[in-house]
Amino acid sequence: MISNTFGWPLAGYPAVRRVLRVVASRPVGAVNNLTNVIARLTASRYGVGRVMSKADRSAFLGPWRRRASRRATQLTLAGALRIEPVMAEVEQSLRTALADLPVLTLFGRKNDPYGWQARFGQMFPRATAAVIPDGNHFPFDDDPDAYAAAIRNWWARSVATHDNAYTKRSQSK
């Protein structure tokens, strides 16, 4: 299952690269270390696309209460700018060795400005595309029940059936 992510180099996405450079910068890192501004912005209507309840916001911010966690997240985001050769290999593997796998792409309808769900659909001919209608960057938070149902339905239709067919072929040999 693939949800609101990418699997290729970001060279063709200058706006994404700019945001990552800003987030990865020392000044933003220093401010974030003291204030947790990145997680707080992400947990705002601007980030998640909706107003969270106090309990939801607290749960969302939980992993970044410690400064070490904030720094690790910032380093991970910064690392996306330095792994173009690795991401080229990932894309090649997705297009070749893994292309025949049944895949579910599950994105928030309100947060796919670069058409990444469609790009995954081109990479995986057997892909099933599902959307969370009011979903943003974290569609599993926007409608957890619909998100889980999409996974269950896809699994029953695409994976369980595929596994049963494979098992029957293997047993008949």
Terminal Cα span: 31 Å
Q: Strand share of the residues?
A: 5-15%
Low-confidence stretches: none
* Coarse shape: globular
Chain-averaged pLDDT: 89
What's the gyration radius in Å?
19 Å
Characterization of this structure:
The protein is built from ten helices and two strands. With about 170 residues, it is mostly helical. The chain has a two-stranded parallel ribbon with strand order 1-2. Helix 1 packs antiparallel against helix 6. The longest helix is centred in the last third of the chain and has 29 residues, at about 145-170.
How would you describe this structure in keywords?
two-stranded parallel sheet, 173 residues, single chain, mainly alpha, 10 helices
Provide a quick synopsis of the model.
The protein has 173 residues and is mainly alpha-helical.
